[in-house]
């Protein structure tokens, strides 16, 4: 079974984003970038499925600027077999990403597509669901456990009420949650091997997809700074303070 794993290049999760002075977006100049953490989990899960004999080939896919090659090389160093980079300048919205992935799925015919439930830069949480709708494949989102057996995949989902397990007929779409696994570090030998693994370069036009944005960002601003707290002597004083703030009647 072939597995496709989409990965996204985002600001490293240890870096505090800075807003541009004109409020037009996030400042990416001289900022450390890395693979989206949820996508790292997806790559790791695909590798584990291959180690169990459930998968035979792992194809990493990234959609974005040419520098996304670095992210794909990371996926290859972790254990992906080959990669596809679809070069697109500027911001690519989830729907355009899903349409490109749909074209790749039609071309590659994978048994499973595993992707992070969301990217930490926009937190949209839309691409996996849109891809499932476009391809007509069953979906298992927010996966904390994935088990492939024959022609089905069992996905344990994290929901508000606890856990829900769904059985999906392959081919299917799965999005990963944080508790699915802990991604491995790429070893130095694998990093060197990744440089020689095949990485195909495409454009959105090759797949006939229009990536023009449908949304317009009016302004971007940092969250309001948290105000200092106030100490109170007892519960009665706390209730009075909350009444003064209009929190309780």
Automatic annotation (TrEMBL):
Cofactor requirements of the protein: AMP
Record key words, sorted: Electron transport, Transport
Location of the Electron transfer flavoprotein alpha/beta-subunit N-terminal domain: 23-211
InterPro entries attached to this UniProt entry: ET-Flavoprotein_bsu_CS, ETF_a/b_N, ETF_b, ETF_beta_N, Rossmann-like_a/b/a_fold
A single GO molecular function term of this UniProt record: electron transfer activity
GO BP, sorted A to Z: carboxylic acid catabolic process
Pfam families cross-referenced by the UniProt entry: ETF
CDD domains for the chain: ETF_beta
Family membership: Belongs to the ETF beta-subunit/FixA family.
Function: The electron transfer flavoprotein serves as a specific electron acceptor for other dehydrogenases. It transfers the electrons to the main respiratory chain via ETF-ubiquinone oxidoreductase (ETF dehydrogenase).
Subunit structure: Heterodimer of an alpha and a beta subunit.
Name this polypeptide is given: Electron transfer flavoprotein subunit beta
Lineage: Bacteria, Pseudomonadati, Pseudomonadota, Alphaproteobacteria, Sphingomonadales
């Amino acid at each position: 079974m072939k597995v496709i794993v989409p990965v996204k290049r985002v600001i490293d999760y240890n870096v505090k984003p800075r807003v541009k002075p004109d409020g037009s977006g996030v400042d990416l100049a001289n900022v450390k970038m890395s693979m989206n953490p949820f996508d790292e989990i997806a790559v790791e899960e695909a590798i584990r499925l291959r180690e169990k004999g459930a998968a035979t080939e792992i194809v990493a896919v990234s959609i974005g600027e040419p520098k996304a090659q670095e992210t794909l090389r990371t996926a290859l160093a972790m254990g992906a077999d080959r990669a596809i980079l679809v070069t697109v300048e500027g911001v690519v919205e989830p729907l355009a990403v899903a349409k490109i992935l749909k074209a790749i799925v039609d071309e590659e015919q994978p048994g499973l597509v595993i992707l992070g439930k969301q990217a930490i830069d926009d937190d949209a949480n839309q691409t996996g669901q849109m891809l499932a709708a476009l391809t007509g494949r069953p979906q298992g989102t927010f996966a904390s456990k994935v088990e492939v057996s024959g022609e089905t995949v069992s996905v344990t989902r994290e929901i508000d009420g606890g856990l829900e397990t769904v059985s999906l007929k392959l081919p299917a779409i799965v999005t990963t949650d944080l508790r699915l696994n802990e991604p491995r570090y790429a070893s130095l030998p694998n990093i060197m091997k990744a440089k020689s693994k095949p990485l195909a370069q495409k454009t959105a036009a090759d797949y006939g997809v229009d990536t023009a944005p449908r949304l317009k960002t009016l302004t971007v601003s940092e969250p309001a700074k948290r105000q200092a707290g106030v100490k109170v002597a007892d519960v009665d004083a706390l209730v009075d303070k909350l009444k003064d703030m209009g929190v309780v009647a």
